[in-house]
Amino acid sequence: MERRKHDAELMKKERLARKMEFLDNPDKRDDIPPGQLLNMIPVKQGDAILDVGAGTGYMTIPAAKIVGGPVYALDLDPDMLQIIQSKARKDNVTNVKTLKGSMEDIPLSEESIDIALASLVLHEIHPLSHSLQQIKQVLKPEGYFVCVELEKYEDNGSHPRIASSVMEQELEDAGFHVIQRRRPTDAVYIIIAQK
C-alpha cells in the first residue's frame, strides 16, 4: 500500500514537471515577452490585473512587477497556483493574489479589474461566449482585455485553436470593442479589446 502511494506521488510530480516545462517553454509562445505584451496597453501604476488561466505565472509575475495594484492569478489547478506563489516569494513580489476557479465563474466582484489577460488559454473553453461575458463582467468600464492565441490554419492538426477572425467576432458579440490587432508571428495573434 505504501509503495502504491509513493508511486502515485512520483507520477504526480513527473506530470507536474512536464506541465511546467510545456507552459514555461518560450517556443510555445513564439518569444512574446510579457513586458512587450504589457507595453501594448496603457498599464497604470495601481491597476488591478486578472491573469485568466494563469498556469505557471508566465504573465502574472511580470505584470505584478509593473503595477502596484493586485494581480490576480486565476487557475483551476492548485499546483499551478502554488508554483505562482513560490515564484512570487522568490522574486519578492507581494501583490500577487491566487484564485482557484474557472473562467466560467470568476470569483471577483463586478467592475473590479482594469486589465484582463488571457494568454493561450481561450482555445480550451467551450462555450467561449459565456467566459467572455464573465471577463467583461469583472472589468471596469473601459477596462482592457488582452487575448493571445495561436492562429488556426488548415494544417494545425488536432491541436485546438481559434482563428483570429472567429475570436474577433466572439469578442464583438460579447460586447467588447476591438481596438488593436497584432500578429507578432504567423502563428500567434494578439487582440486588444475594451469594455
From TrEMBL:
GO BP, one annotated term: methylation
Which CDD domains does this entry report, sorted A to Z? Answer: AdoMet_MTases (cd02440)
Q: Tell me which residues make up the Methyltransferase type domain.
A: 50-147
Instruction: State whether keyword Transferase applies.
Output: yes
The protein's name is Methyltransferase domain-containing protein
Superkingdom of the source? Bacteria
One Pfam match, by short name?
Answer: Methyltransf_11
Q: Which UniProt keywords apply?
A: Methyltransferase, Transferase
What Gene Ontology molecular-function terms does this entry list? S-adenosylmethionine-dependent methyltransferase activity
